[in-house]
Amino acid sequence: MAGTSLCHSTDPCTNGEHSGHPAVPSSSPSGIGTRGGDDGIPVVDFDVLVNGAADQRAQAIRELGRACEDWGFFMVINHGVPEELKEAMMETCKELFSLPEEQKAEYLEAGPMDPIRIGTGFFSVVDGVRYWRDYLKMFARPELHCPAKPAKLRDVAAEYSAKTRDLLLSLAKAISESLGLDGGRISEAMDLESCFQILVANHYPPYTGPDSAGLGLPAHSDHGFLTLLFQNGVDGLQVKHDGQWLLAKPLPGAFFVIAGDQLEIVSNGRYKGMLHRAVVGGERARMSMVSMISPCLDTVVEPVPELVPDGQGLEFRGVRYRDYMEHQQSNKLKGKAALDIARVQRDNAGPEN
């Protein structure tokens, strides 16, 4: 690991904002709703969304909409992705991180839009320091790109990307319905059937330094549409809700689902991309696996016209997704600043006298 970016103030890993590591209350979910406590993370039962009776499904769609509007973040259970496949993906990527440096060398100097990238931090150096993370990023669709070693990674990644893509596309249909649209409308608007997909493996080494935690990845929202994430049993994902940072603690077997910037744009700001970050601390390494779907690279993403009656209240202009991704990936992570290139700028100064 080359260097660190650790917090050495009285505020553990805040990136300039006051925060701690509050525990998220836990209890068994009932269908779809929130876990116990006022700050409980919403839980979506995927089986109800797909197979529930009409009244159950209608209620689930409404609750899903509230989760997207109030949080931009939820857990999904009964999702159908085998635990064995998730474990195989995690273990194979763990094996990749342990390979000798020379076997990964060709991917270490890759740029933001290269199909395979192995590195440290977000984009090499952020504010002059490296963040406490190793990662593998690989494009999975329209074509799977995969390092040659370990040899089994390609087959595992191909199956995992297909399973998680199907799950995310099904969630996209339900989200579209929650906006009062036809189930296929959002997918149509962003050409999600020909979607762009990325797989990311993150490895956060143990940290037992002078502070309680280090910053694995700074606060940001994702550039894509929806992100699916699971981890290896070591907590570290924090999400910002109602101005507070909360430590996200998953239910057994659940995925986290994170709303990205493209959902915020296409919904005209009704659903917000979730601001989140990763912290590290303790004697155990943390790993997380990400599957992200996004619009086709050449799709111009803009608010669905049905959500902007008569063009009034337009919050975002159309931006080609490839351009948006390149912009976000080539600059330092700074909250949701990347959205500014798509945001409609209004002159609030009023007329001159």
Automatic annotation (TrEMBL):
Q: Which SUPFAM superfamilies match?
A: Clavaminate synthase-like (SSF51197)
Show the ranges annotated as biased composition (Polar residues). Answer: 1-17
Sorted alphabetically, the keyword list is:
Iron, Metal-binding, Oxidoreductase
- On whether Metal-binding is a keyword of this UniProt record, the answer is yes
- Domain annotation Fe2OG dioxygenase: ranges: 191-295
In the record, what terms sit under GO molecular function?
Answer: metal ion binding; oxidoreductase activity
Q: Which Pfam families match?
A: 2OG-FeII_Oxy, DIOX_N
Q: Where is this region: Disordered?
A: 1-37
Lineage, top-rank taxon, reads Eukaryota
Similarity remark = Belongs to the iron/ascorbate-dependent oxidoreductase family.
Q: What is this protein called?
A: Protein DMR6-LIKE OXYGENASE 1
Q: Which organism is it from?
A: Dichanthelium oligosanthes
